[in-house]
């Protein structure tokens, strides 16, 4: 199936056994199947409302008993006022015999069956049965009859029909049982359900499933068939055009915009590209397909394309008309976005105006030897240099005046004659330089005053270093980004 997603409506767990091949071969993991159980004879309107209104599914498989089909379709028409977008596949092989004259459903209702209503039954001298079970029973008896006749040509009647065992508890197999089994597997007949033939495992082969669709008169008409041998669906039958409604009125919505749709000042005459396009399309349909399709064009609500309504899954404008199935097409100057493409289908572009835009990329600037100074202004660099020199001088004065920074050059000598102070101007500048470069220093002051000066400088150096790093990252990013064209006005200029 070419369905992207669908709902599976069932009555009991036996439905999963009957349709396990469909379930197992489903490959679309992104949009899985929706399973909903129906209550025979009960109220299923909430279930159908969820499928049609909330999940917004258009393809459905309805697996139920034949006598319940009419009730379910009536509930669907009560919930979904406009069913033209719905595609319902009935799995019951007797569904084509159901009388649906009492309901008005515009959707594509189709079913499979083993027999056709217009098939001749005179060769079998019986009236046309209603149920597929009757067809299969007749075919089974005819197939068994022919198999026995084949055996009678090989064996005499006395050899085939021997006396039964005298005692019931003796489980002696029939001597001709294996011969009859082989005859059943090797014999084929033309039955009411088509060709009746089996393979060596007893599985029916070389049969045809017929495909019918509901026409505009609420009658199932033959539309095609599937052959089990070729695994192909045949072309539509010559009378399959009855399954297509010959008179359908399509509603097209648009918005007022030149030159697509324009209305005269007195609101009596409409003209524009949309009207010319739709006239050409429907004229081609009438000539090529011989179908009397008509259309009418209306301006959508709010005269806008449409946007999602916050807090719900609904849309307004033209998109909302399509999602609510109030319109078939929206024809206008409609921009394709990923958000809109997720909820509606767009037609492929059919016209190219030959307009293209060329954009010249600016050449990359040559690297500057002094580009590392760009993150900070010249004034900041000068202030930083002045603070660096002043801090080094203040640290030198404090270190020379502090008694804790005068140490014994020879620790082994407990009574030194002189003390030594390592804090020269060179070492003070080295300490402040290492701090602002986030590399540290091997020598540290010992006095309280000198340590307070060094700690204050470290705090200042941390802020300056973080600011410089952030400005450098921004500066590099701005150089890589092209801001030559920022809006439509810049493009025109």
From TrEMBL:
Protein name, per record: Putative ionotropic glutamate receptor iGluR6
Molecular function terms, GO-annotated: ligand-gated monoatomic ion channel activity
Membrane spanning stretches: 381-401, 422-440, 452-471
Record domain Ionotropic glutamate receptor L-glutamate and glycine-binding: where: 259-324
Entries under Gene3D superfamilies matching the protein: 1.10.287.70, 3.40.50.2300, Periplasmic binding protein-like II (3.40.190.10)
UniProt similarity note: Belongs to the glutamate-gated ion channel (TC 1.A.10.1) family.
Annotated compartments: Membrane; Postsynaptic cell membrane
Cellular component terms (Gene Ontology): organelle; postsynaptic membrane
Top-level taxonomic group: Eukaryota
SMART domains: Lig_chan-Glu_bd (SM00918), PBPe (SM00079)
Keywords, comma-separated and alphabetical: Coiled coil, Glycoprotein, Ion channel, Ion transport, Ligand-gated ion channel, Membrane, Postsynaptic cell membrane, Receptor, Synapse, Transmembrane, Transmembrane helix, Transport
Species per Swiss-Prot/TrEMBL record: Hedya nubiferana
Ionotropic glutamate receptor C-terminal domain segment(s): 249-493
Bilayer topology annotation: Multi-pass membrane protein
């Amino acid at each position: 199936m070419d369905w992207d997603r669908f709902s599976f409506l069932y009555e009991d767990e036996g439905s999963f056994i009957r349709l396990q091949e469909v379930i197992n071969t489903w490959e679309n993991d992104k949009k899985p199947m929706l399973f909903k159980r129906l209550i025979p004879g009960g109220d299923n309107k909430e279930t159908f409302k969820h499928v049609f209104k909330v999940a917004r599914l258009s393809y459905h498989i309805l697996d139920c008993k034949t006598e319940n089909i009419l009730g379910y379709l009536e509930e669907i028409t009560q919930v979904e006022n406009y069913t033209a977008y719905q595609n319902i596949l009935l799995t019951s092989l007797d569904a084509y015999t159901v009388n649906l004259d009492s309901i008005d459903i515009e959707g594509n209702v189709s079913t499979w069956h083993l027999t056709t209503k217009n098939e001749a039954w005179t060769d079998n001298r019986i009236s046309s049965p209603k149920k597929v079970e009757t067809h299969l029973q007749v075919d089974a008896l005819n197939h068994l009859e022919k198999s026995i006749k084949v055996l009678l040509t090989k064996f005499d009647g006395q050899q085939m029909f021997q006396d039964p065992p005298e005692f019931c508890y003796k489980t002696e197999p029939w001597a001709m049982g294996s011969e009859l089994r082989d005859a059943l597997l090797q014999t084929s007949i033309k039955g009411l359900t088509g060709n009746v033939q089996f393979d060596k495992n007893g599985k029916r082969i070389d049969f045809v499933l017929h495909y019918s669709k509901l026409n505009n008169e609420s009658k199932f008409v033959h539309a095609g068939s599937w052959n089990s041998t070729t695994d192909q669906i045949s072309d539509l039958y010559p009378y399959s055009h009855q399954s297509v409604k010959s008179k359908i009125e399509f509603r097209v919505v648009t918005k007022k915009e030149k030159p697509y749709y324009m209305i005269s000042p007195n609101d009596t005459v409409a003209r524009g590209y949309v009207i010319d396009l739709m006239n050409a399309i429907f004229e081609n349909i009438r000539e090529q397909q011989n179908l009397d399709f008509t259309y009418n064009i209306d301006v959508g609500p709010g005269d806008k394309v449409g946007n999602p309504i916050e807090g719900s899954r609904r849309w307004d404008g033209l998109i909302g008309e399509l999602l609510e199935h109030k319109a078939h097409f929206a024809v206008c100057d409609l921009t394709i976005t990923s958000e809109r493409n997720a909820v509606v289908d767009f037609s492929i572009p059919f016209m190219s105006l030959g307009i293209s835009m060329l954009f010249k990329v600016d050449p990359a600037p040559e690297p500057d030897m002094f580009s590392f100074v760009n993150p900070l202004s010249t004034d900041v660099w000068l202030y930083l240099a002045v603070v660096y020199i002043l801090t080094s001088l203040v640290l030198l004065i404090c270190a020379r005046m502090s008694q804790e920074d005068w140490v014994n050059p020879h620790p082994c000598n407990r009574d030194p004659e002189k003390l030594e102070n390592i804090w020269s101007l060179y070492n003070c500048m080295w300490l402040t330089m290492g701090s602002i470069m986030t590399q540290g220093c091997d020598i540290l002051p010992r006095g309280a005053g000198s340590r307070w000066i060094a700690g204050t400088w470290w705090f200042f150096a941390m802020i300056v270093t973080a600011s410089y790093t952030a400005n450098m990252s921004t500066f590099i990013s701005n150089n890589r980004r092209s801001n030559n064209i920022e809006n439509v006005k810049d493009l025109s200029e």
